[in-house]
Structure formats: structure tokens, C-alpha cells
């Protein structure tokens, strides 16, 4: 068996060659749990999932089950869902509102701040010797709220979230993903979750920048159906692909020092998609038209000191395991996807959806409906991705097949040939630049002593 | 209850069961255009995912499928392109339908039919999924034939075992 250093030498991101071993080997998976998931800042949800005192929602950090809570004082905590006594899970549900959690094994009970509050027959059995203050639920040491998006890190020495993200990533996350200057996003309740074959990195790097697959092979059935239905004058719900590919760029933000963030397709310097939103808004009434104009004006304002005004984005990803869908348009809901590792060759997608808060209800209704018809587990986009991952796993399991590297050579040397003067780098789309940056950062974390 | 009513109800139940069983065969034979014909033009097809909320099973927010007939047509048209990878090669399915109960509706042309299903989906002899749940159908008699006016699918999952590209 190779040692980890040998395996890592097979990750030649500069040449765009990556050893498949890092997507299949269980030893790499275990090393990665420690080096990546125990160190990185991970998204654990959104503050609107726990809007009231005593609300809680469960999630995972890597493969560690956690509970995101809002305690009696209104503070948000991230707790490891594991009793301090014998390691049983204490929170059994996906979400709810409760004063605390009581373990089903011996009945130890904990507050939403993680404190151990009660131990059955404590005086009779422990004779006053039990140090309850040291036996709370494990509290994830670093928690931060970024314009509503909740992050946590298991590493008490992790850099601040601010420096993990850096200025450029923060700009895009705040303004484009979370739409802060447009009034922010509104939560649609409910976890939507599915199992999928494939290492979590394969799906993460797909979201962070693989747009080659969209129109070259994977999603051509979707694109063909849209064209057919639009030409028949029927309502094709996911008709959102830009007609003019000239103005679509790959945004590469963050990277060597900060967590890489990729915007798969960003539109800059073209009015095409604004005009399409506007013409659709006209069919929805004056509220919708006014709102589309208003948000365009706000977008131009926040970009006034830049050399171009981005309007919308299709997909995106933040290292390590957050995926995003913007669908180019506020007439479609925005999706947040977490790719939780489940062993080397499987992952689980946990997805939630949001719409722009200030949108008129008629737009929200449309956006909600459409969000579920596309990049969604029963939509007409995501299941085709899952099928590819399944095939890659089947072809990639034999160890002899790990010798030949995966190829990430698209747009090598053309990385920055997009408009200058925006936050981060704009390059041509499609590209595999963001994937190369993803593996560079992954390698840095894995090599860190 | 008069014998006449009993035999009418029995006949109705037989008719509805026959309809649902034939529908299952149409799906398993992958005759999706014939399947679309079983729906009224104003049909709804709804499939919520589930969540555990304080111990109770609740719908997980917006249904993961909330289709009108055009959206069902889009799904079938997608497979017709020949590039719908998730159905290349086509899934082998076996829909087992049981526990059929038929009740009157407030509309004399409609009935409410409850049923339970188990669906095995096999692909390439190795990747398989088992699906189970219940359906609440509103069936409407149109020109002497039964049509599905509304189908609500209660799938027993909080986490799907794979993406959905088949019908229940």
C-alpha cells in the first residue's frame, strides 16, 4: 500500500492531472476527514433554519452528526450530536423546538447550549463527584454567521472566517449568492436529501466550475426539451440558459490563501438575461416589472467601482463541500447544496432552497416551483449527474485503473482571458481552472502538518 | 346496506383496481405516452419528501415533484430525446400495487382511491433501488373512462436512495 505522501504526489494540479486514487482509496478518505473536514470552515446551514428561541436543526460536518441550535438567550451553537456519557445520539429528529435533548440510553439531559443539566439519580449514584460542567455535549469551537449563512469549524485554531474567505470571496458571497444588497433571501423550509455514488470531491468540483458537461453531453436532453417546448410556445420551466454565450465567464475567486470559490457561469457586460427577466416579468404584472428594474439598479450600484457589472450566475461552489445554483435568474429559486462524505465512494446531498425576499409573491411562487424542476433530485437536471458519478465509480473501483490520471486540462493558460477589474479572476467559460484551483487547495490542506 | 349498493360498490372497486393494475403494467412496459393519456388535462402529480419534525413525520417543505400535465410531458419528452442519461439504458421497474380502497368524492364523477406500492428499480443488474409508499388518487370518469385527476405520492423516505427519474 502506498503512503499518503506518495498518493499526494499524484495530484499534479498545475498540469491538470489528478490521480483517481484520491477519489477511491479509503486510507485517503480517512486522512482527508482529519486534514480537510476537521480543519476547514464548513457551512452548517442558515440562521433562518433556527429563527426562534429553542429551535434546532440537524446536519453533518463531514461525517460527524451535529445539531445547530438557538438557545434561550438567542445564541446559535453547533453541537456534536453525541452523548458525553456513552456516545449515543441525543437529537433524533431533523428539526424542531425543544428546551433540550435527553439521551435515550441513561437519560442524561442537555440544554441547547450543550450544558449537561441533568443526570438521573446523580446524588445517589455519583455522590457529588460528577463534574457536570466538564461533561456537556461537545460544542464546535468556531461558529460564524456570514449574512445569515452559518459556518463552523472543528479547529479551535482555525483562522477567522473573514480571512478564510478573504475579501473577494466575501464580495461575491454577500452580493450575489446571498443577495444582501437586494434585501437578502427567504428560506423555504425542509431538507431535501439524496444519496449519490461518487466521492464528495467529484460533485464539489463539478459545482465549482464544470460547465463543460452541461452543454457537451450530460444535460443535452434538458437543453433539447427546453428548445422544443419553447418553440411550441409552451411554458418550459427551466428555460434559463443564456442565448448569448459571449458574455458568460468563469469566475475564479479566492484560491491559494483563501478557500477557493468558483462561479461556474457569470454574466458580465450583457443585458440579455436582464431583458429576458424583464419580458417575463411583464407577463406577471407591474410589481414584478418594478422589482426587476429595482434590483438591476441595485446591482449596477454595487458594481459602480468595478469595470463591469455582473448580472447573474448559473452555478457555483465554495471549498470544500458547498454547491450553489443561481440559474442566471431571480425568477428561479436559489439552491444551497452540501455534499456530505459517506465513505470514499459515496456522498449524500443535503439541499435547501431560497428565494429573494423582496420579490413579489407572484415571482416567488414561480421561483419556488422552478427550483424543484431542475437541479434537484427529482428534477430534469441532477439525476443525469448522479448517473455519471455512478458510472465513474464502477469504472474507477479497480486499483489498476488508478494509474491513469483524471484530466483537467481545459483552458490551460487562458485562465484570465475574461473581463478585468472585477473581484477575483474572470476567465473563459467553460474552463477547468476552478477544478485545478480546487485540487491545489485540497493538496495544501492535505500536506499541512 | 341494500344488496344493490354492495354490488355496485364491489363493481366500482373492481373497476378501479383494474385501472390501477393496468396502469402499473403500462409503466413497467415503459409505454410512457400511453401513461400520459391516463391523466386529465388539469392533472396534478405531487410527491413530497419527508422529515422528522419533533418525532412526527411531516412533508419536507415544498414537494420535490409538483407537476401539471405539461411538466409530466416534459419528463417524458426528456427521455424521448435519447440523451436522458439517467434512463440509458432504461430502468427495469416492477410496480406492485395493493391495499386499494375506493371512496366516494363530493363530485359524482370522481372517486378517491388509496393504494400502497412497492417499486423495485433495477439498472444494469447491479444498481437497484426499492421504493415503497402510499398514493392518494383522485380518479375522474371522462367519457366513460377513468383518468387520474390528482395523484399524491407519499414516499417513505427522508433521504432518497437515488435521484428519481421513474414514476409512481
TrEMBL record, chain A:
Family matches, as Gene3D superfamilies: Naphthalene 1,2-dioxygenase Alpha Subunit, Chain A, domain 1, Rieske [2Fe-2S] iron-sulphur domain
Domain of life assignment: Bacteria
Keywords: 2Fe-2S, Dioxygenase, Iron, Iron-sulfur, Metal-binding, NAD, Oxidoreductase
Transmembrane portions of the chain: none
Domain Rieske: residue ranges: 41-125
InterPro entries given in the database record: ARHD_Rieske_2Fe_2S, Rieske_2Fe-2S, Rieske_2Fe-2S_sf, Ring_hydroxy_dOase_asu_C_dom, Rng_hydr_dOase-A
Iron-sulfur in keyword set: yes
PROSITE patterns: RIESKE, RING_HYDROXYL_ALPHA
Protein family according to the UniProt entry: Belongs to the bacterial ring-hydroxylating dioxygenase alpha subunit family.
PANTHER family: 3-PHENYLPROPIONATE_CINNAMIC ACID DIOXYGENASE SUBUNIT ALPHA (PTHR43756:SF1), CHOLINE MONOOXYGENASE, CHLOROPLASTIC (PTHR43756)
The name this protein goes by in its record: Phenylpropionate dioxygenase-like ring-hydroxylating dioxygenase large terminal subunit
Organism from which the protein derives: Nocardioides massiliensis
UniProtKB/TrEMBL annotation, chain B:
Keywords: Dioxygenase, Oxidoreductase
GO molecular function, one term: dioxygenase activity
Domain of life of the organism encoding this protein: Bacteria
UniProt KW Oxidoreductase keyword: yes
InterPro entries per record: NTF2-like_dom_sf, Rng_hydr_dOase-bsu
Segment forming the signal sequence: none
Family of the protein in this entry: Belongs to the bacterial ring-hydroxylating dioxygenase beta subunit family.
Name of the protein: 3-phenylpropionate/cinnamic acid dioxygenase small subunit
